[in-house]
Amino acid sequence: MKICIIGAGNVGGSLGKIWAEKGHTIIYGVRNPLTPKVQTLLEETGHSATAELVKDAVQKSDVTVLATPWEAVGEVIFQIIDLKGKILIDCTNPIQPNPEWPLSQGSSAAEEIAKRLSGFKVVKAFNTIGAGNLSDLTFGSLHADAFMCGDDAEAKKIVSQLAKDIGFDALDVGGLRSAEMLESLAKLWITLAYQPGIGPNIAFKLLHK
Ligand SMILES: NC(=O)c1ccc[n+]([C@@H]2O[C@H](COP(=O)([O-])OP(=O)(O)OC[C@H]3O[C@@H](n4cnc5c(N)ncnc54)[C@H](OP(=O)(O)O)[C@@H]3O)[C@@H](O)[C@H]2O)c1
Fold first, then answer.
1. What is the pLDDT of residue 106?
2. Distance, CA 188 to ligand 1 centroid (Å)?
3. Could you list the residue range(s) of the whole structural domain that residue 178 is in?
4. Using a 6 Å cutoff on CB, does residue 72 contact ligand 1?
5. The total number of structural domains that make up the chain
6. Residue of the CA atom closest to atom 48 of ligand 1
7. pLDDT tens sequence across 60-86
8. Is 61 in the pocket of ligand 1 (CB under 6 A)?
9. What CATH number is associated with residue 89?
């Protein structure tokens, strides 16, 4: 699958390297493909990964992953707003307020993105675990859960497979209305990761009896 990753940082870079290893074609969507940081990431990703300007990268891909700070989302969306029919995986967490896009009570970053990108099928995923865990999702005998939500069943099926490719157990929690819960879950992860005696090597898992 051709995967565009917008945001070549902790999350985007980690996902890109893992999916490239699993045989996917990675195109990083960046502001400047020629910076040393991007060139280094391309070398680390290998497998013929490329970097292009955001719109070109999205156009050439089957699936787009949004992994920029929430504050940058307006600038990114402005560039791709006219594209249609694409799947967009939203990994952002609105930790810092985005003055351009204040979130109303009960809303979520994912729903705001979906409202503006009406031609995209938005799935919220990969936002409830620290990027440092993505390269090894095994915790004892269990695998971390990738909680996801979205309104398009076919898009969620594709994202579930991409989650399994990374080593997650995929868990569909419902429509995009559930994104607010997943963004709150990310806040819980961050809070726990900073607790003395806990730290960032943690993940959420739904346990069944
Ligand atoms: N870090 C985590 O553990 C974690 C886990 C789950 C979810 N998240 C969420 O995932 C998102 C990314 O987090 P991160 O830790 O990966 O951030 P990061 O390491 O700071 O990387 C962000 C990337 O976004 C790029 N970027 C910023 N503005 C852009 C724009 N206008 N167009 C294109 N690219 C742009 C940056 O490029 P430059 O290098 O050019 O600035 C950078 O490569 C955030 O919303 C965060 O809340 C993070």
1. 86
2. 19
3. 2-193
4. yes
5. 1
6. 11
7. 999 999 999 999 999 999 999 999 999
8. no
9. 3.40.50.720
